[in-house]
Amino acid sequence: MAAPIHFWFDFSSPYSYLVNEWIDALAARHARTVERHAVLLGVTFQVAELKSPVSHPLKREYSMRDFARSARFEGLPIRMPQTFPLPTQNAARVFWWQHDTVSPQAAADWARAAFRAVFTRGVLINEPAALKALAAESGLDADAAEAVWNDPRWKARLKSECDAAVAGGMFGAPWIVVDGEPFWGNDRKVQIERWLSQGPF
Asked: I need a surface site. Which of 9, 40, 116, 131 has the fewest CB within 10 A?
């Protein structure tokens, strides 16, 4: 069986939301599976000595325009949250809890729910009450989810994934790796499709 497509993301990344809506169909077209990795962009930015584009006034205006334009281009709804970017460590810990104790598919379902909540409804998943409500809406035990994001075990689990992402060279999201070849950004979809269909180029 062909190796899975690895997809690293942060729940505060609009481009990761767009890729998340696309990548399963991509994998199916090429008889692959997807392995998702929730991480924190802030960690990778710190190591790479980078800042989010939206932290720069000129880049922020362009980035916000491009988020909306890119979603329209792909026929996807988008509604940016009032606070942006958002701290997403709690949502990421819930992702790893679902991944490790239920299944990767349960984690993927949570990822889809969280991305759509943030980028189609403007849900502020950094707020505990909002995240608990989303957990309940997604069929999870909201109290258990809250316990998870405060649990040192799941804090350590997320940290280990962030460390692995940095060790693998990740400095931005979405970060997609196909057969060892890294691709950064929503605008690499055509290259990824060609790599999967025709091999290295």
From this structure: 116
